[in-house]
């Protein structure tokens, strides 16, 4: 008889790492399927849970649609992923990550893989990204996190095969990333044979992020916002390398205390009468 541990996994034999695949482009995104395929090929025990609609620019927001206090979650079929459980969730990707750590989609994940985003997430603008926000939420909750994005220009055809090629070397890097760090990967939208090596990059002070523009007639568009300073061309940064056809990887930390803050240990309050 097979016994299970407190997470619902079988005891005994070595188990593959459990991976949650999510994104901010929505459950129907082609990039989501690319990432799920890469995770399965890499040997992860994979589950997919993603927003039911476009959720770009939501950062680590926890907005969720609920019915009678319960989040709206639907199990769905994704073509090409017949052996992977897939869930459509009426929530932002960070909430989906948080729910996954509580067992909402089966055994909690060991890693959260977010993407493949249609559009780069680089520079300080990553603080606004729903793709990166999901991975940061994973790390805050003591999981490993990876965010991956493809530098697709507005209206341009995505080369998902480029993202797949980079993922084959990026996913094994998760074992080398220390606790508390997110690996943020960006891929030029080029044929795989034209890509440079996956290269460590600094975070540019200027960056781009996708966000959703809502109109009064209840329609919406995904637009690209440029955020930050003017040093995007500084050598060694993610923006600089990506513009030159080089896939980048940048280690990010979530919110943490400043080690070099100028604050005194305490400040006496004024005398009270």
UniProtKB/TrEMBL annotation:
Domain Survival protein SurE-like phosphatase/nucleotidase residue range list: 20-199
Catalysis: reaction(s): a ribonucleoside 5'-phosphate + H2O = a ribonucleoside + phosphate
MF terms in GO: 3'-nucleotidase activity; 5'-nucleotidase activity; exopolyphosphatase activity; metal ion binding; nucleotide binding
Pfam families: SurE (PF01975)
Tree of life domain: Bacteria
Enzyme nomenclature, EC number: 3.1.3.5
InterPro entries linked to this entry: SurE (IPR030048), SurE-like_Pase/nucleotidase (IPR002828), SurE-like_sf (IPR036523)
Key words of the record: Cytoplasm, Hydrolase, Metal-binding, Nucleotide-binding
Region feature Disordered, mapped onto this chain: 253-273
Family: Belongs to the SurE nucleotidase family.
Name under which the protein is recorded: 5'-nucleotidase
